[in-house]
């Protein structure tokens, strides 16, 4: 198949592209390179800074880049906002892509109007998120960072409706997004894909922590998204642990960094702080697990059942509970004090990723969905 992956986030489509190419498909990745992450792509869709940045990008998409965005069997969007443009321009590009290519699909792996509207509604698809917990609206909703009014503005909502009525189906990266899509678009062809991890590109896993060494704890939340991911709560816990056990623990909290540097950092630590409001491990957590680190991330029972993980298997994810932060801290403290359980979790991580999130496994799910849909 000839495939266009349009847009990227957290290196998702870049990882998927490598796996699809290895299976003999002709794949082109067009993205903004993840901005500061600087992930690879074939067609750079970065928007230049300044007043006319959007107009310049839109002009390139209609002229010099137009021939490179047509003639594909499959176009897989990273989100309805697949490039950094206003809804009206996105809609015109969407219609052109519809006429110039075969099937159009969405990878559901982040916010869009439908996701935000569901999570902030009186009856969300999951019991908790950064938007609300057990029906109680969280302060996050009212912050500038959450941008609730922008996500639900009439112009964007109208474009979102057009987008979902134009595509031929969607694949979800997380359990939560799958539940949301089932609730919001019950007639839309849908499949779970998971997050792809190219384990061959990562340092080899090692059992953590090594005897006699300090327990290295990494805070990874992207700056500017601390409250969205619950990073502020996790950082407070890690600081508390480090203050209580200064001789046996070390806390590392770097600024945002390029993807390649980030991977090397992940390979050097024992515990990785990822997120608190998720039912599912994110990209950072999965990469950490593949290298033997234990993530603080989504690991709810609903997720394990959803992916078919045996109930008696070692759970390699430390699952924070945003509904009971003090209990979460107590469990984390126990894990630090008695590292045998940490070593069991560390040993189970690489196999978990290989079964459920190896890039080739995720690529096969995409191919099966495309073949069935076509």
What would you say this structure looks like, in words?
With 374 residues, this protein is an alpha/beta fold. The protein contains 15 helices and 13 strands. It has a 7-stranded parallel β-sheet with strand order 3-2-1-4-5-8-9, sandwiched between helices. It has a 4-stranded parallel β-sheet with strand order 11-10-12-13, sandwiched between helices. Helix 3 runs parallel beside helix 6 (154-166). It is globular. The model has no long low-confidence stretch (mean pLDDT 92).
Radius of gyration: 21 Å
- What structural class do helix, strand and pairing data support? alpha/beta
Kindly report the spatial arrangement of strands forming the biggest sheet: 3-2-1-4-5-8-9
| N- to C-terminal distance | 11 Å
DSSP E strands, number: 13
Instruction: Using the alpha-carbon principal axes, give the shape.
Output: globular
- Tally of helical runs: 15
């Amino acid at each position: 198949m000839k495939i266009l992956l349009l847009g990227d986030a957290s290196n998702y489509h870049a990882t998927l592209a490598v796996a699809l190419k290895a299976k003999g498909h002709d794949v082109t990745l067009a993205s903004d390179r993840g901005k500061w992450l600087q992930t690879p792509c074939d067609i750079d869709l970065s928007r230049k800074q300044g007043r006319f940045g959007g107009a310049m990008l839109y002009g390139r998409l209609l002229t010099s880049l137009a021939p490179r965005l047509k003639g594909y069997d499959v176009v897989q969007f990273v989100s309805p906002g697949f490039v950094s443009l206003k809804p009206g321009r996105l809609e015109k590009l969407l219609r052109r892509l519809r006429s110039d290519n075969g099937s159009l699909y969405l990878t559901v792996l982040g916010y869009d109007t439908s996701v935000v509207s569901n999570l902030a509604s009186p009856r969300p698809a999951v019991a908790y998120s950064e938007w609300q917990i057990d029906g109680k609206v969280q302060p996050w909703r009212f912050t500038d960072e959450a941008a609730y009014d922008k996500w639900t503005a009439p112009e964007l909502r109208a474009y979102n409706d057009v987008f979902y009525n134009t595509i031929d189906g969607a694949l979800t990266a997380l359990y939560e997004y799958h539940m949301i899509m089932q609730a919001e678009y019950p007639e839309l062809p849908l499949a779970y894909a998971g997050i792809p991890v190219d384990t061959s590109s990562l340092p080899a896993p090692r059992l953590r922590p090594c005897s006699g060494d300090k327990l290295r704890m990494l805070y990874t939340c992207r700056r500017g998204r601390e409250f969205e991911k619950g990073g502020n709560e996790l950082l407070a816990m890690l600081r508390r642990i480090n203050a209580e056990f200064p001789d046996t623990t070390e806390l590392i909290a770097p600024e945002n960094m390029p993807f390649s540097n980030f991977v090397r950092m992940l390979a050097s630590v024992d515990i990785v702080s990822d997120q608190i409001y998720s039912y599912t491990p994110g990209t950072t957590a999965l990469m950490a697990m593949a290298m033997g680190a234990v993530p603080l991330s989504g690991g709810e029972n609903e997720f394990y059942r959803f992916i078919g993980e045996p109930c008696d298997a070692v759970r390699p994810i430390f699952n924070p509970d945003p509904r009971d932060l003090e209990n979460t801290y107590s469990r984390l403290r126990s894990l630090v004090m008695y590292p045998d359980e940490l070593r069991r979790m560390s040993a189970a991580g690489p196999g978990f990723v290989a079964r459920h999130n190896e890039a080739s496994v995720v690529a096969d799910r995409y191919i099966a969905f495309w073949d069935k849909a076509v």
